[in-house]
Amino acid sequence: MPEEFDFSELRKYLQGQMDMGEEDLLLDEPWTLTRKKSAAPAPARPANSMPQMRPANPAPFPQHSAPANPAPIPQQSPFPSNPAPFANPAQSAFAAQSAFQQPAFGAPMQPAPAPRPAPAPKLDAGLTIAPRAVKKTTAAYELADSIGAFYDALKTDALYARAANVVRYEGPEHPRLLILLAAPKPGEPAGAFFQSPTGEMLVRLFGSLGYAPESLGVTYFYKDAPRALSPILLASLRRMLTKELSFIAPEMMITFGEPLFYDVFSKGKNFNELAGTALDFNGTKTVSLVDAYAMTSDKQLKWLTWKVHIPRSGLFTAAK
């Protein structure tokens, strides 16, 4: 029987291209392939349309008969022809006793004395040992009471003291969806991410999932430029992000890119296993996807995001 293949996804893709107009269709974005209600779907082809053919006179199953004169089975004696000499128990006991070395003059052995515990140090009754004090400093941004004061305090922090500009959040007061990128792209105007090719692509993507453009916001993990930092400084950036999220208060946060995933969640997690799954960052519902800038010009990454990662989380529903 020839093997049957399921071409339903290909049929849906081709039908979507025929149903939509050229001005509304982007062939490299799978989330723009929405079907219209004009044509009824064609009836599905039955999975097994050809009957199975069986031979009219099947060949008889071969019968095997036992041989007329089977060869005799040689019989073996249960006792060996040359048995080993039987060991005398008295001799074995004497040999074991001689192996044990007795002390001189037949005196019994005495157990070794147990070591005495070391004497406890004697402390003066008037002497007390105070616990070591650990000085904990609070950063200025942690004391901010508004998002404006938070960004002003970041300029005084050691991480951004030499930064020419600290990029701020762009979007509504409490967005439904917060886009977290690693850092601003060089040459991209500040405050105009959603007018860039990558921003417009993400607007179309999440618009297909029911998110209006005015419900989206964007911020950056690095407020100036990405750089290699020690684990201690990365922990400071995570605390900054936690404080920033307390003011933005999004319903969900989407991170883009594998390096950013490890900056946010540390090296203890695996991006390939957790991309698209529902995660949590300090109380904020989070989903990690592939790099958005690379996705803009890579059709395979778009299909991976739309067909694999977004359905994996279970948090999104395609708009009807």
Architecture blueprint of SSEs:
Layout: H1 8-19, H2 89-99, H3 147-154, E1 177-181, H4 197-207, E2 216-220, H5 231-248, E3 252-256, H6 258-265, H7 271-274, E4 279-281, E5 284-289, H8 292-296, H9 299-313
Parallel strand pairs: 1-2, 1-3, 3-5
Antiparallel strand pairs: 4-5
Describe the structure.
This protein is α/β, with parallel strands linked by helices. It is 29% helix and 8% strand. It is built from nine helices and five strands, in the order αααβαβαβααββαα. It has helices at residues 8-19, 89-99, 147-154, 197-207, 231-248, 258-265, 271-274, 292-296, 299-313; strands at 177-181, 216-220, 252-256, 279-281, 284-289. Strands 2-1-3-5-4 form a five-stranded mixed β-sheet, sandwiched between helices. β4 and β5 (284-289) form a beta hairpin. The protein is extended and about 95 Å long. 17% of the residues are buried.
**Element order: H for helix, E for strand:** HHHEHEHEHHEEHH
What's the main sheet like? 5 strands, mixed
Outline, from the CA principal axes?
extended
From the alpha carbons, calculate the radius of gyration and give it in angstroms. 39 Å
Estimate what percentage of residues fall within beta strands: 5-15%
Extended strand count: 5
Q: Mean pLDDT across all residues, rounded?
A: 77
Structural class determined from secondary elements: alpha/beta
| Through-space gap between termini | 39 Å
The side-by-side strand order for the widest beta sheet comes to 2-1-3-5-4
Task: Outline the low-pLDDT stretches.
Answer: 20-25, 35-39
Helix count, DSSP H or I runs of 4 or more residues:
9
Helix content: 25-40%
